[in-house]
User: Fold these one by one.
Assistant:
Number 1:
Amino acid sequence: MLFRVFDQGELPILFSALTARHEVIGPVEAGVDRHGKPFYAFEPATDFRALRLAYTTTKLPAKRYFLPCREDLATFRTSGSDWSKTVEYNVDRPRVFFGLHACDINALNKLDKVLTGGDYPMPWYAAKRRNMFIVGVDCEPQPSCFCRSMGADTALSGFDLFLTGIGDRYFAEILSNNAYNLLRGIRAVEPGEEEHVLYRRAVAEKTRKYTARVDTTDLTKILDMEFESPVWKSWGEKCLSCGSCAAVCPTCYCYGVEETVDIDLSVARKTKTLYSCNLVDFAQVAGGHNFRPESHSRLKYRYYHKHRGFVEAYEESLCTGCGRCGETCLAGINVPDVIASVRGEGGA
Amino acid sequence: MTRERTPDMEIPFVDVAGSPFRPPRRNDFAAFEYTYKAEVTRVHTLTAMETLYEIQLLDPEERRRFSFSPGQFVMLEVPGIGEAPFSISSSPLRRGAVELCIRKAGSLTTYLTKVPRGIRVGIRGPFGTAFPMERMHGENVLLIAGGLGLAPLRSAICYVQENRSRFQAVDIVYGAKEPSQLLFSYMYEAWRQDDIDLSIIVEKAGPLWKGPRGLITKRLKEILADRDHAECARNMYAIVCGPPVMFQYVCDQLNVYGIPMQKMFVSLERRMHCGMGKCCRCNVGSTYTCLKGPVFDYWTVLNLPEAI
Amino acid sequence: MKVAGTIEVHHLTRVEGHGNIRIRVKDGRLREARWEVVETPRFFEALLRGKRYDVAPWITGRICGICSIGHTLASIRAVENAFGFDPPEQTRNLRLLLKHAETLQSHVLHLYFLAAPDFLGVGSVFPLIETHPDAVRRAARLKLLANDLCDLVGGRRMHPTRTVVGGFTLLPKKRELAGFRERLIAALPDLSATVDLFRSFPVPDFSRETEFVSLLGDGGYPFIGGRLVSSDGVIRPESGYLEMTNERVVAHSTAKWCRLSRESFAVGPLARVNNNFSFLLPEAKVLAESLGLSPVRHNPFLAHAARLAECLHVTLESVALIDGLLSTDFGEPRRTVTPREGKGVAAVEVPRGILYHAYEFDRDGRIVMADCVIPTGQNHGNIQADLESLAREMAAEGKQDAEIERLAQMLVRAYDPCISCSVH
Amino acid sequence: MAAGGTKSWLGAPLLRPRVAFFELTSCGGCQLQVLNHEGTLLDFLSLVEVTDFREAMTERSHEYDIAFVEGCVSRSDEVARLRQIRRNARTLVALGSCACFGGVPRMKNRFPDPGLLAREIYGEYPMATETVRALDEIVPVDLKVHGCPFPKEELEKVVLHIALGKAIETPRHPICFECKANGNVCLFDLGELCLGPVTRGGCSAWCPGNRFGCWGCRGPADDANLDSLRAIAKEHGFSGEDLADRLECFGGFTPREAPEPSPRRKSRKRGTR
Ligand SMILES: Cc1cc2nc3c(=O)[nH]c(=O)nc-3n(C[C@H](O)[C@H](O)[C@H](O)COP(=O)(O)OP(=O)(O)OC[C@H]3O[C@@H](n4cnc5c(N)ncnc54)[C@H](O)[C@@H]3O)c2cc1C
Ligand code: SF4
Ligand code: SF4
Ligand code: SF4
């Protein structure tokens, strides 16, 4: 990996170099909550001053830019009894993500494993993923962040450029030729030992700030053992089966497919809609049988998929520890508490 | 030091254009939503609820390349109406055509009952695991179906018929609710002629029904009663297709007769939208039924929480 | 064939809600002419009792799906008046813009879908899709424009979601507002084509001395709040609405009836134009005059002309409102309103006439008493009187039953009654 | 009563159902909603034959396949009308919250004696009025289009699916999911009450999308967890009364007076659901 160091004052130049030719998505302030605290969202940004690089985790991930909630998989035009099918991946230009945190970059890395791997890469995702330019920034751990437990507190890959603040300078990690070229346009130098020390100090400082944690030791086994544990039922009693947790999760990718005909009968569409395993009919099949009729069985499945099944298949969890699901859940269901209760530490 | 104050940053676009309707390579983007265009060439009403559709790919080249194994399924699509997974019911020897035995259950399946022959449909697949027929060569085979379970099983039966000499004793045990719900009745004679022992049992029947009545397990007990357990353990395979409650009972019973659970195969049904391990809808516990299944050996099923 | 006997129109069509017309003529003389309202009452005033103040606008909107925006705005104003809250100019302008959008959509709906088929001799707008495709498409365009504007400002074209006590939950984007400015201007040719179409229809010749009640303009054509006026010279403050309406229950109707200086009075577009002619924008005034309007005209069929003039007026004024909104920076969308014990009344001109909402609150802002007086309710008595007079004249002229029935129906429709609204 | 010849899909002719619209006790809004969304109105009309639509046309007929009924039942003559409509129609569709649950008018039922209410408001000429009931408390209902008002697209979907011969499914999950999918901020975070967590989805979170808490006009979602919502509302500082006011508003969360008869009918042309 190549490294550079540059003054924070150079960043706007870098930003405008990107906005000059590309759509840039970055964190901006989206409002103020009932406690008077600002909250943030990933939105298209053209003005560096509108960016909030010191943002706390956005309420919604950047997912909608690469896994939209609704996306046409195919359109059909008919003539008589014949039809023709058109498949479009809905991407025609590269897009810049400016200011993703490590957890959100790791979310992409995890999604890559399932969506771009296997015999059938998922083209709508893969096409967008291939056309992303990602500038990561370091973050300030929040009370709900447990990314460190999930090993997602630093990003080792999956970005082009990653910036860590060291005093009034940035320590930049470069992973792509594009990023390398970009940095050539500003005053950036190779770091020396002094900067390395500063970088390590910044990272150690950040690490010290984590408060939430999840014990993942033997977790897959424990989940299997506790499949019938009564704690699931008590979480299930709280769960609203609303699927908000999946909607805000940077890695939830389950979907449903709908075929529709436009009201003027001109085209038919096959549309993918992101779904959530917490929704009541997620596992319902023809004939009306539902494999997970109770809310606790669905909630349990969500945890199994993330913390057991995915680990089995890809040797890492599908959770990045961003804490969004716990923050959004009105019923207060969150990963650290649920896992602790399953481990027999603290009740539901 | 000189430097450009406004660096020019053009990120090259990585072309991702798909090419539907050209033969896909694996790992190719176009493979995902690749649809074989096909035609419904025959419609055969089996019962009040089930119909058999013969579906042929239109493109001769594709017809040649399309092949499958018993137990696999395809996604059948009618534009604008729906897409759903169906087990292939026909012989794997027939290239470029499949027969699907479809029960009226919702949008697509009801629509199909009303369309004329000749309608153009789309087929994706074949997907999923198959019954390991070759592994069964030289052995006794028990083919057990309850209700619509005969649909996937029939493909295996075709295979057995076509390769009859490679198998020892072959038994089909088929159970249904009532005689009017029996599927593929026009085939029974042919099966028997191929030296396949066929027993049919129904739960309820009028006075005209001459055959046995009761649950499938009852009939099974009768068949297995005089077999030697050690023998069964050594040279018997079973394929069990039907609703989960049924295959659970049957498999547990077979286990009592000594057949190892790894030699019993069942087909799981789940909701599926992609067939390629992406949509997550078919997950059992956290196993993709569409990739690791639908055919599983019973031991694996036992180890899948919430499979049954 | 001359006079026959009984005309019964059970559940009159192309009006909102259920009403019957019953006319009996014998030997060229009218025996009976009755306008019966048989809609089912829903007791909204009682439903509101004990509810918190913010429930009122949301629920009372459900009095009527056609003028839900008017009801919502009237309800909000009554609550704000009770709590002594004066909305800032931005909120007032946005509300008026929303109101105009509703007026335009309601008038277009009435003119094309409900009234025009009578003049073109068909039973509904549906056959016109083939015979007058241009007109139908024009109606759809105008209605779409007005409805889209309702969506933008109110959040939804029916039962709006952004309108709350204290202001709006969300403001439209300026870019979108600017887009509507263009669309409104582009709609002017459609409006004049509408005028041309209605100019080609004969206005039935019938008049009856009537008292007209409306808001009194104060520097402009009135829509939201202000003093109340009648063409017979009565003037009252907004809070004195009870003296203006004098509601009473009658035997053959589920709606209450009203009177003022005479046995009945009329509200609606014609009343507004009659009482506030001078406040119409110049272009609308010219149009009104060219359609035979001037203060005060007593032919109820001229209501269509008044609607046309108002369509032009609200379209032009909407453009001006948007210009005003675009030229200033948006302030906060919504202000906090503190409930207090007290009474509040609001009078709002909705498409069918003047609408009153009045509430009394306890200290926690819960509703102790609610009263809503609906324009169509105020009109029922006048419809009855017009109907009698029209039928009498026609019977005397020896008109045939079918003709009497046709004109009687057209007469009732000219009031654009909103019956379920009047029986709330 | 509409333009256009025979329509077909994939070579198969579409059913052109004869449809009729009726209203019982209601605000007329749902019928108006049919005429709304002018952009698709003509396409919509070309899929059906409108045989009765009092609010928009004079011709009437008793010949229809689908009856769309708006409004709730609050008078005995309406019971008779509804029964007659049920006899004539092959498919009876409850249009909007009043028809599905009793809607806003159902709030009347909290007064024990409707007659007293009538006398109070109408004095010497009290109006006949009964307890408000939803359609399915009187006759079997085949389909429900939820909402006050419902989104026009939902009605279009019903008609289109009947024409195509497709099953009609209503979303079964709560509004919250759609709300998040649309990128809205949760109203609880903004300090407002919202019934999204228990209300049936399908409106694309219409109100929360406008920063206005959901009032539950589409009635409860399948498996709605009201107890959990109660705890959440309390935790966010809303009184039980505030929550009860909302839950009561559209009748969807109010217990039914009569058991819901099974909506099974012989001649239905639809799928299993
Ligand atoms: C591997 C496999 C093999 C199958 N083989 C056969 C077969 O040989 N013959 C046969 O008749 N049926 C078979 N099925 C079942 C068949 O897929 C369903 O009957 C079909 O999905 C119904 O589709 P529809 O459009 O008619 O129903 P819809 O109208 O889409 O839905 C009706 C109900 O089915 C459920 N459903 C929707 N989509 C799916 C889906 N993709 N998969 C499962 N359930 C769904 C919904 O919960 C809904 O309640 C098989 C299913 C699987 C998974
Ligand atoms: S865990 Fe929370 S957010 Fe997720 S479905 Fe349950 S209630 Fe909704
Ligand atoms: S499961 Fe929760 S904490 Fe984990 S990645 Fe998803 S939203 Fe974040
Ligand atoms: S958000 Fe709630 S109140 Fe609003 S339309 Fe949807 S269901 Fe009805």
Number 2:
Amino acid sequence: MPLLQVEHMTHFFGGLRAVHDYNLSIEQGQIRGLIGPNGAGKSTIFNLITGVYRPSEGKVTFRGESIVGLPSHEIAALGMGRTFQNLRLWRHMSVLDHVKMSQYSQIDYGLIGAFFGTKRRNQQEKENTEKALQLLDLVGIRHLADSMVTNLPYGVQRRVEMARALAINPKLLLLDEPTAGMNPDELMDLMQVIRQVHNTFGLSIFLIEHRMKFVMELCERIQTLVFGEVIAEGTPKEIQNNPKVIEAYLGKEVET
Amino acid sequence: MGYFLQNIVNALQWGSFYALVAIGYSMVYGVLMLFNFAHGDVFMVGAYIGFFTASGLMALAAMGSIAIPGWLILILTLIIAMFLNSFVGMAVERIGYRPLRDAPRASAAITGLMIGIILETGNLALLGAQRRAFPPLIPPTVYKVGGVYITNQKIVIIVVALALTLALHQFVQHTKWGMAMRAMAYDFLVVPLMGIPINTIAALTFALGSALAAAAGVLYGVAYPVLGPYMGIIIGWKAFVAAILGGRGSILGAASAGFLLGFIEIFVTMIFPSTMRDFIAYTIILLILTFLPNGFFGEPYSAKLRL
Amino acid sequence: SGGGAKVIKVGINAPLTGSIPKVGEGTKYSAQMWLADINKAGGLQVGNKKYKVELVIEDNESKADSAVKANTKMITQDNVLVIIGPQSSKQAVPAGEVANNYKTPMISPWSTNPKTTLNRPWVFRGCFLDPFQGPVIANFVTNQFGFTKAAVLYDIASDYPKGLAEYFKKAWEKLHGAGSVVAYESFTHGDTDFSAQLTAINKSGAQFLFTPQYYSEVALIVKQAHQLGWNKPIVGSDSWGSAELIKLCGSDCYGDYFSTHYAAAGAKGATKAFIDRYNAKYGYVPDDVAALTWDSLNIAKTAIQNCGKLTGKIATDRKCVRDAMANIKNFDGITGKMTFNESGDPSKCAVIVKISDKGEFKFFKQVCPTK
Amino acid sequence: MEATSSVPTKRNAFNAWLSKQWMPYRQVSLLGWLLGSLVAVLLETFIGTSLAWALGMSDVPALFGFVVMLKQPELLPSIILYLLLIYFIPIAIVVRLTKSIANKIAGLLFRYPLWITALFHIVLLYAVIDVWAVMNDYRVLLAKLMMIAIITTLSLNVVNGYMGEFSCSHPGFLAVGAYTASIIMVLFFVNDKVMGPALLPPALGPFFFPIVLILGGVVAAFSALIVAIPSFHTRGDYLAIISLAFMFIIKSLIENLQVFGGARGFMGQPNLASLPVVFVWTIIAIWTINNFVRSTLGKAMNAVRDDETAADAMTVNTRNTKMTAFLFAAFWAGIAGGLFAHVMRYVNPGSFGIKKLAEVLAMVYFGGLNSVVGSIVGAIGFNFLSEMLRPLEILKWVIIPVLLILVMIFRPTGLIAFKDFDPEELLRPKNQTEEEV
Amino acid sequence: MLLSVENLQVSYGKIKALHGINFHIDEGEIVCIIGANGAGKSTTLRAISRMVPASPGSKMTYAGKDLLEYSADKVVSQLGISHVPEGRRLFGNLTVMENLILSAFARKDKKAIDRDIERVFGIFPRLEERKRQKAGTLSGGEQQMLAVGRAFVSARKLMLLDEPSMGLAPLLMLSVFDALKAINQEGTTILLVEQNARMALKFSQRGYVIETGNIVMEGKSEDLLNNPDVKKAYLGA
Ligand SMILES: Nc1ncnc2c1ncn2[C@@H]1O[C@H](COP(=O)(O)OP(=O)(O)OP(=O)(O)O)[C@@H](O)[C@H]1O
Ligand SMILES: Nc1ncnc2c1ncn2[C@@H]1O[C@H](COP(=O)(O)OP(=O)(O)OP(=O)(O)O)[C@@H](O)[C@H]1O
Ligand SMILES: [Mg+2]
Ligand SMILES: [Mg+2]
């Protein structure tokens, strides 16, 4: 059974058909890519899968459960972590709190614990802090744990998003243009991080990217979306040489 | 039937005031995304300016050789009060809002509230505790049309309210100044990058909003000729309700919500025991917003944020 | 405390800011005039000693909790001997509780709510009560015009109009049977548009309108009523009795009636003297609040003097003043003769005033409580 | 822009001198300060009155002389002298003398669970307040109202600060709590003309009072559903209107309930809200609210405020969070209302209108958003200011707004905003902490 | 020399973001600034367009005029410097068309404005399709097109571009850079900030490398492209 299965998903924004008859099946431990011109509907697909929008038509199954219509946070708690194309951090919270927050669904001390500060609560908060610090270590920003996110450089903010997404114990990680705003050097770093989390946690990863070097090196299979429809799917090699993809998306000369 | 029609006329007049104050509110709200809680009191100041202007003009007319007719005094009063009050608005912007431009909106709301209190108490301290009687610029003539009593005042008020609403709507939607105002509501930090002077736009917005408040104040003085320092509070808060019920920054929305509020209040009084008016009227509003979570013409809360 | 009582402190608890600043102003002016008189006499003669008198004026912002704070402060901090105020029942009811608890005599000049003095031996008032005024008006209208159908318009959120409207309704229905109040409409504090209520009143077939509102609202109600085609009598209560009424209402109010504590136009003797002095000093004819405050202050003064001597122990002196106050008989005030009953309320006559077509408040009739 | 740097001016020299003088006090633990204050207030109890007379004042200055200062400026030197003799000098001496011992005790206490230290400090704090207030009842009343204001402000900060809504419904919650508690108390424990004889022996009143207050809080929390449920679908300005409507509805409802006095108000509440009672409730409020906002469940409010979609995507149950925030805040507002009613022993719907709203909003934003300490400072500061300036009458309502505007301009989120309140930090001994603990 | 910057210092509160940098741009040039995250690239552009205040001691001259005497809006309306800010910063509540019209706020030449808007639509046909859509609902890349489009329409003697390629599909990225080149040939000077250092260096004539608020290297773009240090640090070699 695939980890995530999307069948015949279609979505309209008013009269605009943003996604049409989209299918996807991701196995445990795969890294998959989604590319396509701007406005093709890639981010929309992420939003549909994660429950931000509800698809007009289609089925989405995650870990054997149908998740269409579930609220975002329940889908996330099932093990689907994501990052956002335009950063969506919590302005007034520290880096550490960001990562702790994502463990919300794992908390079970309840309101009594929250109001009265029971032993159980203190225990759990402590454990959560430790786990959060480990994750920050993993993405290399432990030393910034107490800083507020607003003043951090863009690249660091991206890492916070990554650590935050990892804290929900994901089985599947959705990354929307994780390299945007990074220079090639940092891009290599990030690739390293992604490989590492992939290996450590055995996660599946599904990512949207415009930086071809990144996609081609990381992904096992890639889909190309144009006007909401998949025009090609295959290994990086196949995609790179697919004339339709070159015409609609890559162009002749590919820069990283 | 006459009873019903009479109440429609009543509601139209009452709604006109909510509408006029609400669009002034909505101007500032729509542009700077700020609650201008001083607006009700700016309205009060407008009414007072109107009072002094009108009294002065009437005194002039009384002693001078030239006979100025009442309607001319009204027009002059409207123009002068609108003009002068726009400076009050600009001063409010300068003192209470410009320094807080990148503060949380709620903080600016508090300064607005405080400026309002200063205007009220300032009035009380300077002009004393007595109420003022607005001079009768157009002596009321009562017409009886098929069991419905209408006065010339009512007609003037409703017509002016509608005209100002439409004019302002045109301005905000279709001129580049209007666009700049709306842009500023969204992200004022980049507005200068378009070569737009933000301080000018902000001042202009407050000036326009306050001019409208003055118009409302003068007409209010004509219809309800008792002025006091606290006259702006209730109408200000209710206009706040209307401005947002109409949808953020939408002039037509604010105006229609203003009229709607007038209609709700009048008709609730007509149908239910009048003691229950606020209870029922606000329950209706609460229900409207529960089912139309973005007001009438508004964008959803998160329109600004994109995934 | 107070090191042997060289000064007598009198507390004034008044709404200087808030929604009825004019009431506060009248209170304050009256008190200052009163103090000026005492100062001119070189102090207040008690027994064989002259005391300097100080006013402690506290603003209650027209809020209940502020009035309580002000009373507590004046009693426990400033050690006032007696308190005048608060004026509105909204503040006088809770503030009276404080005065009573601290055993400090207090007179509210203007609060007509029975609760203010009820079961509070230390609290007095300077005016008649709503349960008295309501029937006075009902009887007057019945006798004068022979009407049987009444309409009432009142502010539901304010204590005074609401109470009076209820007492009037009760009295009217007692006279003319249930349902004889054909329209009983209300609005909320701060409203200025009464068109819907007045339209309903118009339709109800009432023969007159009773509206126990403050003068500023009266002007609006009366004008709007006329604009909606109403041309029957409108009757009011003591809250109409301000010189401002005519300024605001103009000829629309001519010919209407209201009950009140005193009639300024055509007043005689001490009343006239007071009015003239006040007018000369502050430039307008004093409202009933000012007159009642004046009377209350003088009751306090009489009580202090009747006490005979001040010990300097504030608790003893307060007790003495209270007892003296309770024992005052036939105090001759500018708003009428007063004797307190056991709950601290004076039995006073009401005056019916007609607004003349020059806008003066003309004495029309006096109605006294039946013994 | 950068602060103009370090040419040693006179002002800088003065600042340096000042901070040098202040140095020793840096190491004074809270315990030390409390001890010092206790000595000062005791001193005032014993010699305050006589000293005041000696200095030409008629009585002990109730609010540290601020009120007197405005009424009789000529007394200014006396007041300063009084403050120095009763407060500043004794506190300074005691604090310095007991510095090391207080730190030792604090360190010793710190070895036990935190609640023991906390309790110790709280008892001491109460002693200070009690001794201070008992001097005269005006102080008692002010202290009570200030503490109630603290509860109110804190609870509003939960919604407006921590969750970032502009809720206007708080006067409504206060009213619900006030009326519920009053009605139950009067019905059950007071022989009253309106509600008839007490259903239970009035002597039981004090024991049931806490339960009744909680009931009031619970009813207020229930009424908060009216605002909380729409908040699932709408936020920001629209919710502000919903909450405002709620406030109007509650006020109108009470005005129409003749049984409870309507506009005339409701009185006869038993005299149960004594200083210690109000104090204990205030401490509980601060404690639970602070616990809540520091837990991950509470911080979820911040996540909802800063970016709801992101919060949702990170497993935060946004509905639960909003619901909890509104209900919890309303609960405490209800308690505050109940206490208020029993302090005033009279409530009327007019006390819960726009004026009240403006006042609580001002306290929250003045003190500081998203901060427990801020709310405490805001409530105390605002009440103090408003009492202190009372002699100015009308001008008071010009000066207070001007001050608030200045605060907003220079500290747009309030005096102390976005700060975690860590009791451990506060109670810790202040000398070279590492060795001691 | 069109723009010369001397000893430019900028601080955000206590954080000093620029420690006194010097550089210049000649008329008609394309100059790029590259550097790591947080190096201060965007801050440099913001300082030029007067969005952030420069600390005392900084000097900026533009066409012989003291830039520091102009406010942010006058820099655009009187000096003709346009700025595509980081993160697009569109007016999400206005339509695409309104965004474009607004960017010509300070211009009076109605005809020329229309022509420029047409031209933007020529480069980005997608925008013309979405003329009436609210900018806030455009896809990330579409937003980027509009952000660049706005700069075309507003004054353009000097164009400051902050990461114009961010989030653009490869094909589109090429067309944007082609368009920029064309504009440059028509006389617009361009100062480009890019993460995609290789792209930026290929496109520009000269480049500066900025590191934690200091310029550490400058030179002809080709030379930088071949410089081993640059290669190692910024080209991901
Ligand atoms: N809320 C919305 N309302 C209307 N149209 C929308 C909305 N959200 C997205 N769209 C439109 O749907 C299309 C797909 O958008 P989407 O954000 O999925 O693109 P994308 O593939 O992620 O592009 P990019 O690579 O530029 O981020 C776009 O044309 C966009 O304008
Ligand atoms: N508004 C701000 N408040 C505080 N610090 C800021 C602000 N903007 C930027 N900074 C800080 O100034 C420094 C320079 O930032 P700048 O945005 O100029 O970098 P950049 O080179 O453009 O980086 P990036 O490639 O991430 O866009 C960074 O350390 C950043 O954290
Ligand atoms: Mg996208
Ligand atoms: Mg940048």
